[in-house]
Amino acid sequence: MKKHYKTIFFFIGLAGLVLLALRANPDKLDWGDFFTPKLPLLLAGLLALWALIYGIHARAFRLVIGEAASGISRISLYRICVSGFAINIVTPAGILAGEPYRILELRNYMSTEKATSSSISFSLMYIIGHMLLWLSGIFIYFLMGAPGSPVLTVLLSLAALIMLGLCGLFFSFRHKALAVPAFRFFSKLPLVGDKAKAAAEKNAELFGAIDRCYAEFCEDKRTVFRVLFLEYGARLLEAAEYFIVFLYLGVNVRVSGAILIVSFASLLGNLLFVVPLQAGTRESGMAIAIELLGISSGAGLMGGLIYRIRDLICTAAGILLILIGKKKKTDGESRPI
After folding, report:
1. I want to staple 251 with a disulfide (CB 3.0 to 4.6 A). Which of 42, 117, 227, 246 is the partner?
2. How many CA atoms are closer than 13 Å to the CA of 171, on its beta-carbon side?
3. Burial bucket for residue 114 (CB in 10 Å: 0-12, 13-18, 19+)
4. Is 162 within a domain?
5. Ranges of H-type helices in the chain
């Protein structure tokens, strides 16, 4: 990571808030609702909430890894989870950017094949958890009577159908291979086809082992559903963050409203995953949701700002944990025998 990489993305992440601020007419806002003596307490509470959310992800990750996780301490696995999510946030590759890091860390405790298959399986469960959240938000939208524009209603209907289809495919083909079919598909595409075919032939044994590990995980239906339950539960706790934030600002969004906000913010942010820090994309999704709920844009601006502050603190903590992990490894290597 380049020296000023995080600083650049910090300001990029604030760009979306600036656009939202211009729309909200910040000069006319009562910033006394934002800067109160309870603000540090609120941030501390949100950080504690996210410590719990990361703990749920770490528990799900341990279930995915299975017996091979016995050699990994809970603290180490927690660190790997938090740092992996931090890398996802600050890189344009989105939710997949943290996978190489997780694989490299897990290789210290297990085979490369097991580390790779566990990381891929966890990412897949993580994505399906996202889809379940998005479907929940769309369901709430239609329960509200589809208050948005016809274009928005059509787009959300198509998104719901696509997500239901993808979830159906997962549950229908969960026992099949993953790595080999993926490279077989890529080998048929223009531009990347030849490279994908060469990689598949060169790493045929590795990909086969990865698929065997993946199939082994999927065969245990109980574990798969436990992981999905934990991942979906973590998403609902993310909705609790918006509920608490808007309650702090004097706006009662209800639980259903909080789920609508977080699902729309997450959906738009992940659709435009190439934007580091989901700069402005989450705010745009949140702006759509709060408009549907009849919340003022001023409250939306303040809520988005609180979210960004908390998000940046968590991201900085994840990067710091990476540096701490590297320092421990360096100290261990340099320690005299």
Report:
1. 246
2. 10
3. buried
4. no
5. 5-24, 39-65, 74-90, 99-106, 112-143, 150-172, 179-186, 193-202, 204-219, 221-248, 254-271, 281-293, 297-334
Query: In the chain, what's the furthest Cα-to-Cα distance?
Result: 70
Angle CA(319)–CA(49)–CA(78) in degrees, nearest 5?
45
Residue 196's φ and ψ, nearest 5 degrees, are -65, -40
Query: Which residues in the chain come in under a pLDDT of 50?
Result: 1-3, 5-17, 19-20, 23-24, 93, 273-277, 333-337
pLDDT tens by residue, 228-264: 999 999 999 999 999 999 999 888 889 999 999 999 8
44: alpha, beta or left? (left if phi > 0; alpha if psi -120 to 50): alpha
Whether 160 is in a domain gets the answer: no
How many independent structural domains does the chain possess?
1
Q: Write out 29-55 in H/E/C secondary structure.
A: CCHHHCCCCCHHHHHHHHHHHHHHHHH
Long-range contacts of 164-173 (CB under 8 A, 24+ apart): 164/135, 166/131, 167/128, 167/131, 167/132, 170/124, 170/128
The reply to whether 205 falls in a domain is: no
In a domain, 154, yes or no: no
User: Could you list the residue range(s) of the whole structural domain that residue 77 is in?
Assistant: 5-144+221-331
**Amino acid identity, position 163:** M
